[in-house]
Amino acid sequence: MEPVALLSDWQFVVSNWRFLLLGTVVTILLTLSSLSLGFLLGFPAGAIEVYGDGWLKSAVNTVGVILRGTPIVVLIVLFFFALPIPRLGTVPVIDMQMNAFIAATLALGLRSAAYQGQVFRGSIQSIASGQMEAARSIGMTKLQAVRHVIFPQAVRRSLPGFQNEFTIVLKDTSVAFAIGLAELLTRAERLYLQPGRDTAVIEVIIVISAIYFILTFTTNRALDRLQQRYAIPGGNE
Amino acid sequence: MSLLRIENVDKSYGDEDVLHDVSFAMETQDVEVIVGPSGSGKSTLLRCVNRLTEIDSGAIYLNDEEIHSLDENELRRRVGMVFQDFSLFAHLTARGNITLGLREVLELPKEEAVAKADDYLDRVGLADQGDSYPAELSGGQQQRVGIARALAMDPDLLLFDEPTSALDPELIGDVLRVMNDLAEEGMTMLCVTHEMGFARSAASTVTFLDEGRIVERGPPEQLFENPEHDRTNAFLGELSGLH
Ligand SMILES: Nc1ncnc2c1ncn2[C@@H]1O[C@H](COP(=O)(O)OP(=O)(O)OP(=O)(O)O)[C@@H](O)[C@H]1O
Ligand SMILES: [Mg+2]
Questions:
Q1: What is the pLDDT of residues B183-214, one digit of tens each?
Q2: In CATH, what is the architecture of A2-229?
Q3: Do A233 and B133 touch (CB under 8 A)?
Q4: Which domains can be identified in chain B, with CATH numbers?
């Protein structure tokens, strides 16, 4: 490969920084919406798996098994084409097609809920049964005990698993590429598929990899801080 | 009227009889010490009194009210429990461990709950440890917080399940001192413990439980000096050999 050609490929990437930045914005939005949905559904699901019974518990369990057992690309494509999501148009500037964004959020969010639920379930179950008994023995109801004694400890213990889940969801937003959502990978492809730009494939991919890395790295450090900040003094969790 | 009356209580797990026809009564300000070999049903008996475990048959009365006719949370507010492994709320400070029940169960305003918690911490000799978390306290300190937590709910009866058996020997004294003080102040206490010194000095009655049955029951002097049954003699002899 000619050094000059290489240089012009890098120049091509740099001159399109704004185009990639907008893709980064979509990637971040999709990560946040999916993680939030995953948290809102996953934590109750984990609690139901421990404290619930009957049909609710088996329903949560079955849905979880299905979601964890299906490839994420399959879920995204399925939701995009099979769900009656209304055509809501496109968000200007970031060029984000709303119904693709919703399908991707549902797929990534529900799958994340299935995993976050497992993390939370494990955390609840790891808390010594004596904690619940101590709470009940001063006259707290089961709900009060769960809320004031079990949850605060379980959420802390879930942070490492949540951190892991964050990284997975962020990287997996790239599968929204399969339904053409203008996130980072889709925009990268649009760049190097332009006529005569196929020499820049590697440069473009290196740059977006670096962006994914910076996002996961900085957020993980921030979550480390959060974990230290809320660690129980003297405890080893 | 007895404070606590246990009548013909049976309890089994599967086909294992854990408590068999257990009956006794305690008056206000009594200190009842229960001794017995491992697996004899001591913990089960205590847990039946605050309904952490449900009995199969028989009846238990607190102030002449059958405990199963009471709301279980109301019962537990009136019957405090101190655990062998302390079971302090790990994410709360010593003070927070006490205020939680005061705030959530007794619904005291915050300032009042904090003042009361500090008061009880002072009573168990931990006035300076209010801001410490359980993992920052010694076992003896944790257990004293456990006692303060139970006491702060202003119970009619306190249950102790081997409160010192998880402690290093040098830490046992502090906890026993608190228990002795409580006994002197007239707290009604039902204690499973093998601390014979405490039984001699504080107990009004000692009960020897074996294989889920009450073998013998009486004032400490009688059980220790003049037991009626050979089994009591053998068990207590073994215990005093240990201590
Ligand atoms: N939840 C339970 N399920 C099944 N069996 C139980 C349960 N709790 C206690 N048991 C059994 O009941 C019997 C009495 O147990 P309990 O804990 O009351 O004895 P203990 O006198 O307190 O013994 P220790 O001195 O070892 O604490 C034991 O054989 C125990 O295995
Ligand atoms: Mg026991």
A1: 999 999 999 999 999 999 999 999 999 999 99
A2: Orthogonal Bundle (1.10)
A3: yes
A4: 4-242 (3.40.50.300)
